[in-house]
Amino acid sequence: MSSYKKFPRITVPGEPRLWTGENAWQEVARHPSSSVIVVDTYPGVRLDELQDFLAQALPGRRVIDVEDYAALPLAEIDRLIEPNLTDDRVFGVLSHFTLSDFYDAQKLAELAQEVSTSDAPVVLIGWGAALVPVSNRTLVLADMARWELQQRQRAGAPNWRCDNGAEDTLRKYKRSFFVEWRAADRHKRALFAELDYVLDTNSSVREGKLITADTFHRGMATAVSAPFRVVPFFDPGVWGGQWMKEVCGLDPDADNYAWCFDCVPEENSILLDVGGEVIELPALDVVLAQPRKLLGALTHARFGAEFPIRFDFLDTMGGGNLSLQVHPLTEYIQDRFGMPYTQDESYYLLDCDEDAVVYLGLKTGTDPDAMITELKDAADGGGSFPAEKYVNAFPAKKHDHFSIPAGTVHCSGANSMVLEISATPYIFTFKMWDWGRLGLDGRPRPIHLDHAIRNIQWDRNTEWATEQLVDQVQEVASGPGWTEERTGLHELEFIETRRHWFTGVVAHHTNGTVNVLNLVEGAEAMVESPDNAFEPFVIHYAETFIVPAAVGAYTIRPTGAAIGQRLATVKAYVRGTERQPALKG
């Protein structure tokens, strides 16, 4: 049994302090600059709840909702961002807005004047509260992970200042992904140097946990000094399976689990241990606060403060096929959606049944016009699309690795447990055929056939896929008790993957670039520092962990129940960003 429910914590060193409930706000009120308290929130924090609670926790203070006072009218914001949202249900265009674009500068100035002449001490709240030009303020960031926001939106929460709680969740997510989160992360990162406190609002405002800015920054620095895991989240799907229920210790009564986002720092969270108490913050904060130490100088120079590698699970064991799909070419994703790089990916088979297949590449001799005609007929309700007529179905077995560069038609078949190793822009999937299914919401799942047709690489036929994409394993090194293999990805993709089989200690080195690993075979392993630079870190079967670039040398060995077993890890990093030769032996 894996330990997915025992999420590892990042222990903040020193003597950090944490406050909760009303005690948190009494601490803020004692701050030397507390005549004006500014609580800048991530979009999605419940302002009505915050306002009511602050009125109770800080009697005698005037609480002002900055959004109501100075934000532009919603109709004006809608007109501003309309080109970014488009009419599509799923895809928009990445925005370059800053939060100040959504505010009336004159009203912000008027509010600052009102605060300076107020007879009562003031608390400013809202996404953008820090935009009010007041001096001698105490600044609190009320933070929240994107996954929590998605859960709230699914439960009926609207987008920022919108009255769209009942709207299609895909459209709410689109507004968040392409506009709100972009502005929010730019705004949040700019506040890091000015913060006095950070408030965890992933549960509720009343239960929010408060830490000082010093504790926050020490936590971010500690995170990049040792291997760590983000808190995974699991989601059902129409094709979902049963494997993760048992292995990951999930709810056995759930219908299925389709996805696990086991390493997507943009949406996952991390847990900080602050004096024995746990605070949950977005894993993205580590990326934004410590990009060079986390990613490495060359990876940071290439991608900026963005985590480029994604590990997630696709569980179809006892489920169905994924949708037949293709990902956009680089030029297409840049021109249409404003994303600088595309979603190259791969499927690593953690487990599967004997009948498992991976659909990959087109059968040699496929007539594009005939295939497009049948796809369009199926999309229009004219019957099923005969996928096996046009797409290769390669038999799959445990530990096979299939490369999937953008433009390649693909999907995982039923009865497979896939570790998907890919580039991060993960929503850019063009579904071509979804086997006639409805989504969990009872609506047809989005098909983007026009986008797909413009990106299919028709020359990636049976021979090409067999020679270049299917289980391209090459042994590159070995030593006492270990063997290192290169398993991909394709030369068109920027991620390099290495598999290590080992029965004893195997040495690794980040070589100046972030490493992401998963224990793909064996019960558990110990990750250690050769010079005791970090505490030993235990990892269990199928768990993903991040080794920041700044860590340098580390070792992995069997431990506990795995002693005497042959274990395996798969490691991914950005190809060409290594700063020194890899250590061997």
Q: How would you explain this protein's 3D organization?
A:
- This protein is of the alpha+beta class.
- It folds into three domains: 32-195, P-loop containing nucleotide triphosphate hydrolases (Rossmann fold, 3-Layer(aba) Sandwich); 234-468, Jelly Rolls (Sandwich), CATH 2.60.120; 474-574, Jelly Rolls.
- It is 26% helix and 28% strand.
- It is built from 17 helices and 31 strands.
- Strands 2-8-7-6-3-5-4 form a seven-stranded mixed beta sheet. A six-stranded antiparallel beta sheet has the order 9-10-13-20-15-18, with no helix packed on it.
- Helix 1 (21-29) crosses helix 2 (47-57) and helix 6 (146-154) runs antiparallel to helix 7 (169-191).
- The longest helix has 23 residues, at 169-191.
- It is globular, with a radius of gyration of 25 Å.
- The two termini are 31 Å apart.
- The relative contact order is 0.12.
Q: What structural class do the secondary elements suggest?
A: alpha+beta
Strand content is 25-35%
Shape: globular
**How are the strands ordered across the major sheet?**
2-8-7-6-3-5-4
Distance between the termini: 31 Å
Poorly predicted sequence stretches spanning 5 or more consecutive residues: 1-5, 581-585
CATH architecture of the largest domain: Sandwich
Total strand segments: 31
Summarize the structure.
With 585 residues, the chain is an alpha+beta fold. It contains 17 helices and 31 strands. The strands form seven sheets. A seven-stranded mixed beta sheet has the order 2-8-7-6-3-5-4. Strands 9-10-13-20-15-18 form a six-stranded antiparallel beta sheet, with no helix packed on it. Strands 22-23-24-31-26-29 form a six-stranded antiparallel beta sheet, with no helix packed on it.
